[in-house]
Amino acid sequence: MRPFTLVTSGAGALLAVVLLHAATTQIWELNGYPDFVRGRFSGISITYDGRVSLARALTTVFDTGQAEVWAMAAAPDGSVYFGTGNRGRLYRVDPAGQSSLVWTSDQPEIFAVTVDAKGVVYAGSSPDGRVYRIENGKATEYFAPGEHYIWALAVAPDGALIVATGDQGKIFRVTAAGQGSVYYETGQSHVTSLAFDAQGRLLAGSEPNGILYRVTAQGKAFALYKSSLPEIHSIVPAPDGSLYVAAMGGGVAKKSGAAAGAVTTSGTGVGGGVVSTTVTVTEQENGINPPPKPEATPKPVPAAPQPALIAATTTAGTDTSTDKSALYKISPDNSVETLWTSKDENIYDVALGGSSVLFLTDAQGRIYQWESTNRATLLAQTNEGDSTRLLETNRGLLVGTGNLAKLLRLESSTAATGWYESAVKDAGAVAKWGRIAWRDDAPGNPRGIAFRTRSGNSARPDETWSDWSAPTNNPGEIASPNARYIQWRAEFTGGSAKPGMDDVTVAYLPQNSPPVIRAMVVTGVAGSSARSPAADAQTIGHNAGEQLQVIWQAEDPDQDKLVYDLYFRGENERQWKLLRGNTTESTYTMDGEALADGRYLFRVVASDRPSNPPDTAREAEQVSTPILIDNTPPAVTLSGAARNGRGFQVTADAADRASVLRRCEYSVDGGPWTPVEAEDGVTDSAKERFLIRIAELAPGEHMISVRVYDSAGNAGVAKVVSQ
């Protein structure tokens, strides 16, 4: 069984790991934002510290049937205009909530919309970038900058129209129909966002070097900040002079890819679309005046670490290549504070809601609220395939979505119902479920939360899983059948008190898994062993060393502590004899001569009993291949020694009582050994005859030595003297 692991954090991010007895019940606990955000939910809000409650209600204002809402703008009369793709349509929702189609462009995308003080609407179409003026239901071409993309539009305090373009990164100032000129060239590929600060100065975000500009006059700009992320996607000035800025990567690629795909489909506009290229821009090429020196570049001040929502806080010059997006606050003195970053979510828009900063991400269309306490709360999740725009109006916060393009409103009231489904928990083995419990401000559950569970033995819930259990309003025993996987669901019902909970725990006891023995080897300590082809047995002899060593490798799937019992028996014996019991070591060494010649088997039994009660402890065993002990050398008998002309011959008969013979060799007068094969051609039996013929042997007395080895490396030697 797997030991329960408790991880705690303290000063300096020290981690202490406490391993408890494996037989104790384990606890699956969800108690913070990172835990809860991994689940599926609808109508649910999650705070920084992991409080789960009903979210503010989301209502659908208008479903366009289009693919994306790219741009939104509020008119003085309370109407809202929004541009869509991929059919280039401009819609209006009036103060009474009635929607209508205002204009259809001959281009597939409307990425930019703005409304001036008189209620005149301007819309930019792409990828054949043109700006249109829509007044009294009539659209006329207003300005053609000669660029492919119109990314953003803004009306200056003097009434001039500011146009942000790509893919040459130019900003145009238009004073009348057809009367426009380049106001500032960034040297970037794209100008992706526009805004005016409290002093009426133009702010512009760019891509691909993530530079935020303050443009103070024609051809003159100051770089407020350079993000480590490629694109400044949204700029929102606050009444106190601060700026809230969202940076990300991939926004331009997403939009231009949509435009290219729409062009390919419809055949209108610029054929094939335009590919954005990344360039490296120097300060001189930017025309930044005056260029900030590197040492004077304002550095962001990291917010307090927030493990629940912040993947990594950043400072200027810090490598954030793994981050996807960031939210910055730039104060009136140009100091920069990184409020929020994420490695998983892109920030698509920012809005001010009273004293709070709201921002929208692409992860299921999540709407976050950044609090003055430097914490973020997940206010609501649209559960749409994409969400792109936020707009604060006198009728509430509006959200533009994609796949399909809808206009949603975040209400001030709480949703009537909501639900939360946890991620699936893998117990590692079939488990017995205990209690499910949660923390609520009001015991007895008057807050309207009902829990259900279900279980199964496949990693993803399917038709083989159990049905959801009956709802329970109070902590108690889990009714779902024992299985490897479990999931819980909390259903919220609103009322006079908002239902909310945190710190959900599920107790379970996994089935104990048996140990696994991976390998077992028996060998001589001093080194060599041989294998007989005549019998599948490892042979160990006197030359292999004075000791035998048994080595095994074992592990436990639950990481339980293991103990071992080692046994042996002769091949024809029936009972195992204990060599060593209750040992935690995985080797055993014994005197090699303690076993007489013969075949033996060794058996190791691994048990997890130190970590489990006797009735649930598990064992595994493995038996070695037969081990042949042979400490006796072959007997060698010489016969028939005789001169044969100038040569000499002798017959050697060799026999071994324990193992087969391996080789024969002879030496003349102590000289080099010469190998000889058995008379039948192969040396492979316990008895063999060897015919030794020496072609040239000088006259006189000579000593011929004959040496025969068995498979255990034992050598038998005999000699004969020739005259």
Q: How is this structure best described in words?
A:
The chain is built from three helices and 57 strands. It has 723 residues and is mostly beta strands. It folds into four domains: 5-55 and 418-445 and 454-510; 56-414, Methylamine Dehydrogenase, Chain H; 516-630, Immunoglobulins (Immunoglobulin-like, Sandwich), CATH 2.60.40; 635-722, Immunoglobulin-like, CATH 2.60.40.650. The strands form 13 sheets. Strands 3, 4, 5, 6, 35, 36, 37, 38, 39 and 40 form a ten-stranded antiparallel beta sheet that branches. Strands 42, 43, 45, 46, 48, 49 and 50 form a seven-stranded mixed beta sheet that branches. A hairpin with a 5-residue loop joins strand 30 (366-370) and strand 31. The longest helix is centred in the middle third of the chain and has 16 residues, at 251-266. It starts with a strand and ends with a strand.
Quickly list its features:
723 residues; mainly beta; Methylamine Dehydrogenase, Chain H; Immunoglobulin-like; 4 domains; 10-stranded antiparallel sheet; 57 strands; disordered N terminus
Number of helices: 3
Helix fraction bin: under 10%
The number of domains = 4
CA-atom Rg in angstroms: 42 Å
Q: Give the CATH superfamily of the largest domain.
A: YVTN repeat-like/Quinoprotein amine dehydrogenase
CATH class of the largest domain: Mainly Beta
- What kind of sheet is the major sheet? 10 strands, antiparallel
| CATH architectural designation of the largest domain | 7 Propeller
Q: In total, how many beta strands?
A: 57
Instruction: Label the structural class.
Output: mainly beta
Overall pLDDT score: 85
The 3D shape can be described as elongated
What would the CATH topology of the largest domain be? Methylamine Dehydrogenase, Chain H
Low-confidence stretches: 1-21, 264-320, 527-536
- Note the gap between the termini: 78 Å
